[in-house]
Structure formats: C-alpha cells, structure tokens
Amino acid sequence: MVNAIAALTLGCAALAWLVWRGFFTPVGSFGSWAMFSHIGAYRATLHDDAHDGRPVCPWDYELRQDVFRSAASLQSLVLYLAEEHGMRVVGDGVVLVPFESIRIVVRNGGVVRA
Question: What is the distance in angstroms between the CA of the first residue and the CA of the last residue of the chain?
Fold first, then answer.
C-alpha cells in the first residue's frame, strides 16, 4: 500500500511539473508549449516573369534544414532573386502564423496580403 501511494504521489508530481513546464515557462524555453505552438511558415508557388514564367523552387535558394520560414524571409528571398539572379518573381501562397493562415501574393518585388 505504501508503494502504491508513493508511486501515485511521484506520478502526480511529475505531471504537475510537466504542466508547469508546458504552460508557465518563458516563450521559447525548453519544453514550453509556446516553443512548439508559435511556429510560422510559408508555402508559395513562385514563377519568374523575367524568363517566360518558368517555375521557381524556393528550396533551390533556401537552406535545406530551415523548413519554417516567415513572410519576412519570403520577402528576403524575392529581393535576393531579383538582385542576384535577375528574376522578377511573382506568385501566390499562404503564410502560416500561430492560430491563423494568411493568403499572400508576390508581385512587384514584394509580398502582400491577397
């Protein structure tokens, strides 16, 4: 009986610690809920208007290990492609932000809401 009570007490303490780590620690700290729930990303279909509308694959220019990118990083990619490769990138897509998705359009060298 004492072992069962000790195991139950230890289990409840572990559960309380996990809940505390998950919900009451600073954003971005190890094990916090916000560490996993506030991830943003974009998905876009891009074309190069300067070269007969050929498709542009962001993965040819982005870091392979960095799969969660923001709208600002898409803007940086569009500017990079224009300045370094002479591409005029256009397209559409969606930016995924915490608890919401936003439709976007890429045109005139910028990323704007659709």
Answer: 64
Q: For residues 104 and 91, what is the distance between their CA atoms, to the nearest angstrom?
A: 9
Closest CA to 113 of 51, 42, 57: 42
Q: Give the angle subtended at the CA of 106 by the CAs of 101 and 110, to the nearest 5°.
A: 110
- pLDDT digits 0-9 by tens, 51-110: 888 999 988 888 766 666 778 888 999 999 999 999 999 999 999 887 788 999 999 888
Phi and psi at 26, nearest 5°, equal -60, 150
- For 31, residues 6+ apart whose C-beta sits below 8 A from its C-beta are 18, 21, 22, 25
38 secondary structure, DSSP code: S
